[in-house]
Amino acid sequence: MNTIKNIHYVDIADDLLTHLDKAAGVYAANANITFNILKYNDSDLIVEVRQGKNQREKYQDTKGLIKRGKELFIKFVPDHSIHIRPKTYSLPKVDVVDSKWIQDNMNANRVSLNSIEQLTGISKSNLSAYVNGLRPMSQPVKAMFFFMFSNSKF
Fold first, then answer.
1. Are 29 and 11 in contact (CB under 8 A)?
2. Which of 18, 49, 113, 144 has the highest local Cβ count within 10 Å?
3. DSSP characters for 116-133?
4. What is the pLDDT of residues 101-138, one digit of tens each?
């Protein structure tokens, strides 16, 4: 299965490695929490615990990632000092973009749908659907609006 990066560094019985990997797989499947073994020696285990974007949009803070990492690994290497290097998820800046954000920026910059159509090549009807909240925006569409208004002078 190998859901833990560098799991081969951990020197425990194969059946325990399999159980450890399966337990880590539950974290990956449910919360997009992944594990990377950074160092393993006779006394220490250093693990990076990272959370990515997930469907439920429930995210652990630093303490939560440390807790989950320690709880997972202490069962399998109880004789080691476990050090967790947490990497929390942070929302991309472009996630501020919604229909109201676009409308506010269009008004502030005095930009029309025609201008955006000419600039992007996206039809006015599609742009109107985004601006009025009638069509959901993908990350690339949000990024386009974000960078268009953040970096351009109309």
1. no
2. 49
3. HHHHH---HHHHHHHHTT
4. 999 999 999 999 999 999 999 999 999 999 999 999 99
